[in-house]
Amino acid sequence: MSRTRAVAPFCLGLLLTLSVPAAPPEPAVAPAADEGSVPEPPVRSGYRSTALSAVLGARLADGGASATTGDRGDRVDRRRTTLWGWPLLGTPDIARPYDPPAERWLPGHRGLDLAGVRGEPVLSVEAGVVSHSGEIAGVGVLSVTHPDGLRSTYQPVVDRVARGTRVGRGQEIATLDLGGHCVLHDCLHLGARRGETYVDPTPLLLGVELTLLPVVP
């Protein structure tokens, strides 16, 4: 009888222990990063992007015109060009902006330098016909004449398509080569010309070029 009384409290304690639900485990806490620590940069692939050239906006009608009245009553033709696409995959950084000289015969920077990687494809900014494909002073240069009269130029490039080739917007026309205007890294020099006059390619890549022309009555 005394043995039964001794075992009873032990069994009751065991039963209470099994019937009480276990506390949920504490969630793991990630170790806090050092304030001074710098995250590892992502590994850069051979090309800036594997996607096609980013579309920067809707195309505007090429050559569309509307007659308006100016402050002095002059009639003008507001003619817009289509936006250009980027000549490198994705959206490259502008390493050096357009900086024309004060006079045409002085040295200056008549285009944009876009940071790139040697060997990546160079794309036509707009549809047109290749009007030049060769070397100038040992540098590979390619030019495309577009329907609106503008001409885009690309250098330094190799593996160029032939002169007279019709190309589409975003079509591969060459491969980026070493050299060019950049010293510490590879870059593509993109130029824009209307006739023999250099124009700033930046509005064509980022916005709209607005040209005001007099309208003959």
TrEMBL record:
GO MF terms, alphabetically ordered = metalloendopeptidase activity
**Taxonomically, which superkingdom?**
Bacteria
Which stretches make up the M23ase beta-sheet core domain?
108-201
* The keyword Nuclease is assigned to this record: no
Extract the signal peptide range.
Answer: 1-22
Which Pfam families does the record cross-reference, listed alphabetically? Answer: Peptidase_M23 (PF01551)
- Among its keywords, does the record have Signal? yes
Going by the UniProt record, its keywords in alphabetical order are: Signal
Descriptive protein name: Peptidase family M23
